[in-house]
Design brief:
The chain has about 270 residues and is of the alpha/beta class. The chain has 12 helices and 6 strands. The model has no long low-confidence stretch (mean pLDDT about 95). The structure holds fe (ii) ion.
Length: about 270
Protein backbone atom coordinates (compact mmCIF):
# COMPACT_ATOMS: atom_id res chain seq x y z
CA UNK A 1 0.00 0.00 0.00
CA UNK A 2 1.25 3.48 -0.81
CA UNK A 3 1.27 5.30 2.49
CA UNK A 4 3.04 8.55 1.65
CA UNK A 5 1.02 10.86 -0.56
CA UNK A 6 3.33 13.43 -2.17
CA UNK A 7 0.67 15.63 -3.70
CA UNK A 8 -3.04 15.52 -4.41
CA UNK A 9 -4.68 15.97 -7.76
CA UNK A 10 -7.13 18.84 -7.74
CA UNK A 11 -9.17 20.02 -10.70
CA UNK A 12 -8.17 23.37 -12.25
CA UNK A 13 -11.17 25.17 -10.76
CA UNK A 14 -10.70 23.81 -7.22
CA UNK A 15 -10.49 26.68 -4.68
CA UNK A 16 -7.24 25.26 -3.26
CA UNK A 17 -5.52 24.34 -6.54
CA UNK A 18 -2.95 27.14 -6.44
CA UNK A 19 -2.47 27.21 -2.68
CA UNK A 20 0.72 25.19 -1.95
CA UNK A 21 0.08 25.15 1.81
CA UNK A 22 -3.39 23.67 1.25
CA UNK A 23 -2.04 21.03 -1.15
CA UNK A 24 0.66 20.03 1.32
CA UNK A 25 -1.93 19.81 4.08
CA UNK A 26 -4.17 17.62 1.93
CA UNK A 27 -1.24 15.35 1.09
CA UNK A 28 -0.30 15.01 4.79
CA UNK A 29 -3.87 14.07 5.81
CA UNK A 30 -4.14 11.68 2.84
CA UNK A 31 -0.86 10.01 3.90
CA UNK A 32 -2.16 9.42 7.38
CA UNK A 33 -5.39 7.89 6.06
CA UNK A 34 -3.49 5.77 3.51
CA UNK A 35 -1.45 4.26 6.34
CA UNK A 36 -4.62 3.10 8.13
CA UNK A 37 -4.97 -0.66 8.54
CA UNK A 38 -8.34 -2.24 9.46
CA UNK A 39 -8.35 -3.24 13.10
CA UNK A 40 -5.95 -0.53 14.25
CA UNK A 41 -7.07 2.80 15.78
CA UNK A 42 -8.15 5.41 13.23
CA UNK A 43 -5.31 7.96 12.85
CA UNK A 44 -6.05 11.25 14.56
CA UNK A 45 -5.64 14.47 12.62
CA UNK A 46 -4.59 17.57 14.56
CA UNK A 47 -6.84 20.10 12.86
CA UNK A 48 -5.64 23.68 12.59
CA UNK A 49 -7.52 26.67 13.99
CA UNK A 50 -8.45 27.58 10.42
CA UNK A 51 -9.93 24.12 9.78
CA UNK A 52 -11.83 24.17 13.07
CA UNK A 53 -13.15 27.58 12.14
CA UNK A 54 -14.46 26.30 8.77
CA UNK A 55 -16.21 23.46 10.59
CA UNK A 56 -17.64 25.84 13.19
CA UNK A 57 -19.18 28.20 10.62
CA UNK A 58 -20.54 25.50 8.35
CA UNK A 59 -21.88 23.16 11.02
CA UNK A 60 -23.54 25.97 12.96
CA UNK A 61 -25.29 27.34 9.87
CA UNK A 62 -26.28 23.89 8.61
CA UNK A 63 -27.74 22.88 11.99
CA UNK A 64 -29.97 25.94 11.82
CA UNK A 65 -31.15 25.01 8.32
CA UNK A 66 -31.68 21.37 9.26
CA UNK A 67 -34.37 22.33 11.75
CA UNK A 68 -36.36 23.71 8.88
CA UNK A 69 -35.44 21.48 5.95
CA UNK A 70 -34.28 18.05 7.19
CA UNK A 71 -36.50 14.99 7.67
CA UNK A 72 -37.30 13.91 11.23
CA UNK A 73 -35.22 10.71 10.99
CA UNK A 74 -32.11 12.73 10.14
CA UNK A 75 -32.74 15.18 12.98
CA UNK A 76 -33.22 12.28 15.39
CA UNK A 77 -29.95 10.68 14.22
CA UNK A 78 -28.08 13.98 14.52
CA UNK A 79 -29.46 14.56 18.03
CA UNK A 80 -28.27 11.11 19.09
CA UNK A 81 -24.85 11.52 17.49
CA UNK A 82 -24.46 14.97 19.03
CA UNK A 83 -21.37 16.04 17.08
CA UNK A 84 -19.30 18.99 18.26
CA UNK A 85 -19.98 22.32 16.56
CA UNK A 86 -16.82 24.09 17.66
CA UNK A 87 -14.16 21.81 16.14
CA UNK A 88 -13.71 19.17 13.47
CA UNK A 89 -14.58 15.85 15.11
CA UNK A 90 -12.09 13.00 14.91
CA UNK A 91 -13.25 10.08 12.74
CA UNK A 92 -12.32 7.85 15.66
CA UNK A 93 -14.93 9.44 17.92
CA UNK A 94 -17.57 9.62 15.17
CA UNK A 95 -16.95 5.95 14.42
CA UNK A 96 -17.38 4.97 18.08
CA UNK A 97 -20.61 6.94 18.46
CA UNK A 98 -22.19 5.80 15.18
CA UNK A 99 -21.23 2.21 15.89
CA UNK A 100 -22.88 2.31 19.30
CA UNK A 101 -26.09 3.63 17.72
CA UNK A 102 -26.49 1.51 14.57
CA UNK A 103 -23.52 -0.83 14.22
CA UNK A 104 -22.11 1.16 11.29
CA UNK A 105 -18.37 1.86 11.17
CA UNK A 106 -16.67 4.91 9.68
CA UNK A 107 -13.30 4.20 8.07
CA UNK A 108 -10.72 6.71 6.76
CA UNK A 109 -9.71 6.89 3.11
CA UNK A 110 -7.17 9.28 1.52
CA UNK A 111 -9.54 10.55 -1.17
CA UNK A 112 -12.04 9.32 -3.73
CA UNK A 113 -12.15 5.53 -3.89
CA UNK A 114 -13.39 3.39 -6.81
CA UNK A 115 -17.19 3.28 -6.98
CA UNK A 116 -17.43 -0.45 -6.29
CA UNK A 117 -15.15 -0.15 -3.26
CA UNK A 118 -17.18 2.70 -1.79
CA UNK A 119 -20.58 1.03 -2.22
CA UNK A 120 -19.27 -2.48 -1.48
CA UNK A 121 -18.08 -1.34 1.97
CA UNK A 122 -21.65 -0.30 2.82
CA UNK A 123 -22.72 -3.94 2.54
CA UNK A 124 -20.48 -4.61 5.55
CA UNK A 125 -21.84 -1.56 7.35
CA UNK A 126 -18.66 0.42 6.76
CA UNK A 127 -18.68 3.95 5.44
CA UNK A 128 -15.45 5.16 3.81
CA UNK A 129 -14.80 8.78 4.75
CA UNK A 130 -12.24 11.41 3.81
CA UNK A 131 -10.66 13.41 6.65
CA UNK A 132 -9.58 16.64 4.96
CA UNK A 133 -11.42 19.95 5.19
CA UNK A 134 -12.49 22.08 2.20
CA UNK A 135 -10.52 25.23 1.33
CA UNK A 136 -11.04 28.02 3.86
CA UNK A 137 -11.55 30.70 1.18
CA UNK A 138 -15.03 29.35 0.41
CA UNK A 139 -16.26 27.57 3.54
CA UNK A 140 -19.76 27.04 2.18
CA UNK A 141 -18.66 25.30 -1.01
CA UNK A 142 -16.72 22.18 -1.94
CA UNK A 143 -16.41 20.59 -5.37
CA UNK A 144 -15.63 17.19 -3.81
CA UNK A 145 -16.66 15.24 -0.70
CA UNK A 146 -14.75 16.50 2.35
CA UNK A 147 -15.17 15.66 6.04
CA UNK A 148 -17.99 18.21 6.34
CA UNK A 149 -20.00 16.38 3.67
CA UNK A 150 -19.12 12.92 4.99
CA UNK A 151 -19.88 13.59 8.62
CA UNK A 152 -22.65 16.19 8.61
CA UNK A 153 -24.28 14.61 5.58
CA UNK A 154 -23.65 10.88 5.91
CA UNK A 155 -22.63 10.14 9.53
CA UNK A 156 -25.75 11.85 10.89
CA UNK A 157 -27.82 9.66 8.54
CA UNK A 158 -25.92 6.56 9.62
CA UNK A 159 -26.86 7.35 13.23
CA UNK A 160 -30.52 6.75 12.30
CA UNK A 161 -31.46 3.03 12.35
CA UNK A 162 -33.82 3.05 9.32
CA UNK A 163 -31.35 5.07 7.23
CA UNK A 164 -28.35 2.98 8.30
CA UNK A 165 -30.25 -0.14 7.22
CA UNK A 166 -30.96 1.45 3.84
CA UNK A 167 -27.24 2.11 3.36
CA UNK A 168 -26.44 -1.53 4.03
CA UNK A 169 -29.15 -2.67 1.62
CA UNK A 170 -27.72 -0.26 -0.98
CA UNK A 171 -24.28 -1.78 -0.46
CA UNK A 172 -25.64 -5.30 -0.96
CA UNK A 173 -27.42 -4.19 -4.13
CA UNK A 174 -24.17 -2.74 -5.52
CA UNK A 175 -22.52 -6.15 -5.17
CA UNK A 176 -25.21 -7.58 -7.48
CA UNK A 177 -24.56 -5.06 -10.24
CA UNK A 178 -23.15 -7.41 -12.83
CA UNK A 179 -21.85 -4.83 -15.30
CA UNK A 180 -20.63 -1.23 -15.35
CA UNK A 181 -23.97 -0.27 -16.87
CA UNK A 182 -25.87 -1.86 -14.02
CA UNK A 183 -23.61 -0.14 -11.50
CA UNK A 184 -24.25 3.16 -13.26
CA UNK A 185 -28.00 2.64 -12.94
CA UNK A 186 -27.60 1.82 -9.26
CA UNK A 187 -25.33 4.86 -8.68
CA UNK A 188 -27.89 7.19 -10.22
CA UNK A 189 -30.63 5.86 -7.95
CA UNK A 190 -28.26 6.33 -5.00
CA UNK A 191 -27.57 9.90 -6.14
CA UNK A 192 -31.24 10.87 -6.42
CA UNK A 193 -32.13 9.23 -3.08
CA UNK A 194 -29.42 8.94 -0.42
CA UNK A 195 -27.53 11.98 -1.78
CA UNK A 196 -30.32 14.24 -3.09
CA UNK A 197 -33.57 12.68 -1.94
CA UNK A 198 -36.55 14.61 -0.63
CA UNK A 199 -39.84 13.52 0.94
CA UNK A 200 -43.11 15.12 1.83
CA UNK A 201 -43.30 15.40 5.61
CA UNK A 202 -45.67 17.50 7.69
CA UNK A 203 -47.09 19.09 4.53
CA UNK A 204 -43.76 20.31 3.12
CA UNK A 205 -40.70 19.01 1.29
CA UNK A 206 -37.87 17.90 3.51
CA UNK A 207 -34.46 16.54 2.57
CA UNK A 208 -32.97 13.20 3.56
CA UNK A 209 -30.07 13.16 1.04
CA UNK A 210 -26.56 13.77 2.38
CA UNK A 211 -25.65 16.00 -0.57
CA UNK A 212 -28.52 18.36 0.17
CA UNK A 213 -28.09 18.21 3.94
CA UNK A 214 -24.42 19.20 3.71
CA UNK A 215 -24.90 22.01 1.18
CA UNK A 216 -25.53 25.39 2.75
CA UNK A 217 -26.65 26.99 -0.52
CA UNK A 218 -28.68 24.18 -2.06
CA UNK A 219 -30.53 23.35 1.14
CA UNK A 220 -32.14 26.79 1.08
CA UNK A 221 -33.34 26.54 -2.51
CA UNK A 222 -34.09 22.85 -3.21
CA UNK A 223 -37.82 23.38 -2.72
CA UNK A 224 -37.70 25.40 -5.93
CA UNK A 225 -36.43 22.43 -7.98
CA UNK A 226 -38.76 20.58 -10.34
CA UNK A 227 -40.27 17.81 -8.20
CA UNK A 228 -40.91 14.52 -10.00
CA UNK A 229 -42.64 11.45 -8.60
CA UNK A 230 -40.56 8.83 -6.81
CA UNK A 231 -39.87 6.58 -9.80
CA UNK A 232 -36.76 4.48 -9.55
CA UNK A 233 -36.55 3.70 -13.28
CA UNK A 234 -36.59 7.40 -14.02
CA UNK A 235 -33.83 8.05 -11.48
CA UNK A 236 -31.67 5.24 -12.80
CA UNK A 237 -31.64 6.62 -16.33
CA UNK A 238 -31.41 10.31 -15.50
CA UNK A 239 -28.14 12.16 -16.01
CA UNK A 240 -26.95 14.77 -13.55
CA UNK A 241 -24.30 17.44 -13.18
CA UNK A 242 -22.50 17.38 -9.84
CA UNK A 243 -21.17 20.92 -10.25
CA UNK A 244 -24.52 22.69 -10.03
CA UNK A 245 -27.68 22.68 -7.94
CA UNK A 246 -29.95 19.84 -9.04
CA UNK A 247 -32.73 21.23 -11.24
CA UNK A 248 -34.81 18.04 -10.85
CA UNK A 249 -35.45 16.08 -7.65
CA UNK A 250 -37.55 12.99 -6.99
CA UNK A 251 -39.97 13.37 -4.11
CA UNK A 252 -41.39 10.48 -2.10
CA UNK A 253 -44.86 10.81 -0.61
CA UNK A 254 -43.58 10.08 2.90
CA UNK A 255 -40.42 8.98 4.67
CA UNK A 256 -41.96 5.55 5.31
CA UNK A 257 -42.95 5.03 1.67
CA UNK A 258 -39.43 6.05 0.59
CA UNK A 259 -37.85 3.50 2.96
CA UNK A 260 -40.28 0.82 1.70
CA UNK A 261 -39.84 1.43 -2.00
CA UNK A 262 -36.13 2.17 -1.98
CA UNK A 263 -35.44 -0.76 0.33
CA UNK A 264 -37.40 -3.10 -1.94
CA UNK A 265 -35.50 -1.76 -4.96
CA UNK A 266 -32.15 -2.44 -3.29
CA UNK A 267 -33.20 -5.88 -2.03
CA UNK A 268 -34.33 -7.04 -5.47
CA UNK A 269 -31.70 -5.26 -7.57
CA UNK A 270 -30.03 -7.81 -9.81
CA UNK A 271 -28.90 -6.46 -13.16
CA UNK A 272 -26.39 -7.35 -15.80
FE1 LIG B 1 -21.84 11.63 -0.40
Amino acid sequence: MRSVVEDVELPADHPGVSDPAYRARRAAIASSAAAYVEGSPIPEVTYTREEDSVWRSVSTELARLHERYAVGAYLAGAAQLDLPNDRVPQLREVDARVHALTGFHIRPVPGLVPTRTFYGALAERRFLSTQYVRHHSVPFYTPEPDIVHEIIGHANMLASPPLADLYERAGRASLRAGSDRALEFFSRVFWFTLEFGVVREGGEMRAYGAGLLSSFGELQVFRGAEMRPFELDAMGTMTYDITRYQPVLFAAESFESMVDELGRFFDTFDRR
